[in-house]
Sequence to fold (289 residues):
Amino acid sequence: MHHEGMIIRPPSEANSILLQVTLGCSHNKCTFCPTFRQKRFNIKKNDIIFKDIEFARQNCRHQSRLFICDGDAMIVPQKRLVPILEQIKDRLPWVTRVGLYANTKGIGMKTDEQLQELKALGVDIAYMGLESGDDVVLKNVCKGADAEKMIKMGRKIKTAGIKLSMTVLVGLGGKKRSMIHAQQTGKVLSAIDPDFVGALSLMLVPGTELNDQYEQGKFTLINPEEMLTELGGMIAATHLTNGLFHANHASNYLPIRARLPRDKEKTLTLISQALQGKIKLKPESMRGL
Fold:
């Protein structure tokens, strides 16, 4: 496969065929994210993409899922994206699900009919970074969208019949806005009602603007207990119809996998027990991005 640079994919796509269609992220301004700093956003040429699909036809017959990389493939123009999906459907008929990252700009560039077309061509799940439902936090980290736009674009994906998985970042509000960040994030998640929510705990990465702010004393990173308290507040404020809320990423101090609303009280009790010291947290040395 023709992969350029570091490839990032969601944890749930660990066993998927990784088809790199774009390079980098079209936004690439989030202050906490180091992922695509060394890549200038670009859409790869079709002949390279189609050669990779042919490679997958010959070598990836045991993988039933495919993930389109890099950062926000939803932004690829429809006239480019449709032939790629048609090629996947034709050459890899055993693939049952295609996933991709999507940001608010990319989703907003698609009509409802175009999203439905993508769904018909096999796109079954989109991964969207909410990070926070607090407009102050979203502005501070240069996310490029406010809560209202997040809600609108998230609902737009859901209306097209595409499953939606959203990520949120525990600790992103710092010490001052910790619980505001938690409550507002829960409010936005409730308004969108995604199929999956993945909560990651903030880890500062050297070279990012947020790490610079931390070193300058302009951002206060909350401690593990405060992260857990914030996560509990976020879960308490989140009302899903039947969504899976998980915080079992390598960055998290306490692995959580909860079906909401069924497992809410049990999960809040688990967090309370951890805060009381009855359950050990993951040591700092074991955490990772």
In short: The radius of gyration is 19 Å. The longest strand covers residues 123-131.
